[in-house]
Amino acid sequence: MVEVKGIVKNYKQGVKNTYTNQVIVNIEGYDKEKSKKLVGKSVVWKTSSGKEMVGKVADVHGNKGAIRARFEKGLPGQAIGTEVIIK
Fold this sequence. Notes:
mainly beta; 6% helix
């Protein structure tokens, strides 16, 4: 099983709403077609204390290979700009 690393870029947002349980993750070197293969895989974000928060890849976001990951509870603001692992 190959692990892919990505960077959390932002929460999913609308004009009036911010969805803190869904985040946009950029993956270096991936395009839309490669990202489609990751749908359904798990996403793990580790806190500085070592706790792991696990979510799932929900869908592809845009045409440049970013993905949308959905977590049971929302990620904290400190997660933006940090690394996640997609298994």
